[in-house]
Amino acid sequence: MLLVLIISTILMLVKFTAYWLTHSNAILTDAIESIVNVLAGSFALFSIYYASKPKDEDHPYGHGKIEFFSSGFEGGMITIAGVGMVFKGIAAFFKQDQVEAVDIGIYLTAFAGVINYLVGSVLVKRGKAAHSDLMKASGKHLISDTVSSIGLVIGLFLVYLTKWMWIDYVVAIGFGFYIAYSGFKILKESVFNLLDKADDAKLHHLVELLNTNRRAKWIDIHNLRVLKYGSLLHVDCHITLPWYDNLETTHEEVDAVDKLVKTKLEHEIEFFIHADPCLPVSCPVCQIAGCPVRKADFVKKLDWTIENVLPDRKHTLQT
Predict the structure, then answer these.
(1) Does residue 319 lie in a domain region?
(2) Do 40 and 109 reside in the same domain of the chain?
(3) Considering just the CA atoms, what is the radius of gyration of the chain in Å?
(4) For the ranges 74-83, 155-164, 227-236, which has the lowest average pLDDT?
(5) Do residues 141 and 120 touch, judged by C-beta distance below 8 A?
(6) Helix (H) or strand (E) holding 10
(7) Rounded to an integer, what distance in angstroms lies between the CA atom of residue 107 and that of residue 36?
(8) Spatial contact of 73 and 184, defined as CB atoms under 8 Å apart
(9) Can you tell me the distance from the alpha carbon of 47 to that of 268, in angstroms, rounded to the nearest whole number?
(10) Does residue 180 share a domain with residue 210?
């Protein structure tokens, strides 16, 4: 993130140099967004440092959620910058600014776009490896900047060929809308994460994993929750086990679930499991052969799905 901040600062200077040489409103929109990148990158760097701090008494779940706040800050700033760019582009129609040295502007913009793509790709890859949504969001934003640069180069090339200055203003307005939309998406996702919105992809993956590796004594799993705190994944659930097992045997089954998830998900996970005793209504879906206290015959196996693992109730044939 420190390297990204340094590169973003250099690219900001390159883009403002391009604007100073060309007086292009489209390039100015790109340069203004670079200021946002530098400010957001500074906050992101601090957030990565703060999120990596260990748990303490005041933060028993760690400090990872600051990543969501940081990405929301970045998204908000990008959205505001995009709206400002739209107004600047509209105002340009009335001022009729003259664009100069278009060829130099094309070269500098293309250079910045290539660097953004390379840095963004590395950041997304590192973010996935570190399970950091902030790093992935920052990387995707830099890659989206490359898309902006491609469109910007095309617009400047058309200005160079036709000498129609209004194309520059239209491109500036178009990029303003695109940047504002990109920022709003980042902001919306960060708000959802701060509000602990369920991650359907992670839930489905976890349920599939438990289904594939379930044991006969794991009668059901319910009240399943998955929360994300930066790079830390917090999972809690209730598991129904035979009521007649002693505490040691019950602990072995709970420990087996814990080890399975931590090993297979390849994620830093904190797993809280509450063991429930089985009830007579569990017998028709219980797969334990030769159960000494069975109250009803086994009828069929119930596959675990999102629909039956999320509610806080034991599984029955009516589930």
Answers:
(1) no
(2) yes
(3) 27
(4) 227-236
(5) yes
(6) helix 2-22
(7) 22
(8) no
(9) 18
(10) no
